Amino acid sequence: MDAYDIVIIGAGPGGYTGAIRMAQLGFKTAVIEKDKTFGGTCLNVGCIPSKALLQSSELYYEASHDFADHGIKIESVKLDLEKMMARKTKIVGELTGGIEFLFKKNKITGIKGMARIVDANTIEITDANGIKVNIQAKNIVIATGSTPVELPFLKFDEKKILSSTGALALDFVPKEMLVVGGGIIGLEMASVWARLGSKVTVVEFADKICAMMDQDAVSVLQRSMKKTGVSFMTSTKVTASRSVGGRVELDYESLTDGKKASIQGDVVLVATGRKPFTDGLGLENVQIKKDERGRIQTNAHYQTNVPNIFAIGDVIVGPMLAHKAEEEGVAVGEFLATGFCHVNYATVPSVIYTHPEVSSVGMTEAEAKAAGIEIAVGKFPFAANGRAKAKGNTEGFVKIITDKATDRIIGGHIVCAGSSEMLGEIVVAMEFGGSSEDLARSFHSHPTMSEAIREAALAVDKRQRQG
Q1: 184-227: per-residue pLDDT in tens?
Q2: The whole model's pTM is what?
Q3: Looking at 65, 70, 342, 446, which residue is catalytic?
Q4: What's domain 161-272's superfamily in CATH?
């Protein structure tokens, strides 16, 4: 029976990143993956393919609507959806293949099959042919990620009722698309298909979309998405569905006045959240404890109630984000090597990869006030930024939130084209306990979009120099 120092179940971002660090630290490491390719949801049917389609659809929309403003005339812009999807698939293939290369480079054993924990040191693996083998592990890390939440009256068939996986693989542009759920996944997929020509309606149970993010920034995004033909129904509960003439009809109820009605679409994307994937892992064999939401309970070192079994990523408490899982995977390796580890959850960034992008780190104004923190806020619009004007991307702003008593930055929010690439500056400043004054005194090349960060930092003390 093969034996390892560490066996990780799941080859998503948390699993493969953690495995590389563990191997670097000298541990004999194996990773078990139930799917045909490594990379988990993120690389195969999540982060990467969605960003490929967001990029392609944005270029298509710009060519169709915005190029003329730059003096570029195109008589007819045509969509080749098959080629667009082929490009997405090629990118996914290159990156998943890259993980196999990294495993070989770092002498990590990659195993394909379904894992089941037999006892605290034994894992049974069932391969695609049903053949079972056992391996031994001094330590086990559960990094199995999450799956889309399915509604009882909207069961996924990936043809008419879509999860995010199905929405990334459509072979036609729906005339009308309904999106149930106004969170990050729903908005990103709504953006893709609206740009390609769908009439998209987003139905959201809450009274606002993306309620967890800065609402000033979300308002900018919502206005922009409406311009591309996306409509929004908030405070709305979907109650039933049926097939009508090859289309899907949803019944809904307004939570504000109780009125009931129905709406039809060619397809429905259900984007109401994700849940931890722990089915079939044999957790009951070792009495692993879970909370009321099905998440595995861990301590500060990611240990479960069984000390040599750890859990990271989407299966534990916290935002279901690839970069969060990556840091936790690394932390487990470092804990096993040194007895110490730390992940700073106050600086976990979150991004909606739409156009414009909404990027956030730390607290919103509402969260800071609810925590009883007296804050100072600096805000600067891209409409007053020279590079933004030159690029034709003047929507949005930078907002920096500080603790008024110390000037330490406790939150940063950027809404603009490409804001995800700009947010890192604020994340680094927060990681070092930086202040708005630190950002305000730092050089920023002129002209750049990032100058707006400096101006927002100056605006905390009402010292902005532009706009």
Answers
A1: 999 999 999 999 999 999 999 999 999 999 999 999 999 999 99
A2: 0.96
A3: 446
A4: FAD/NAD(P)-binding domain (3.50.50.60)
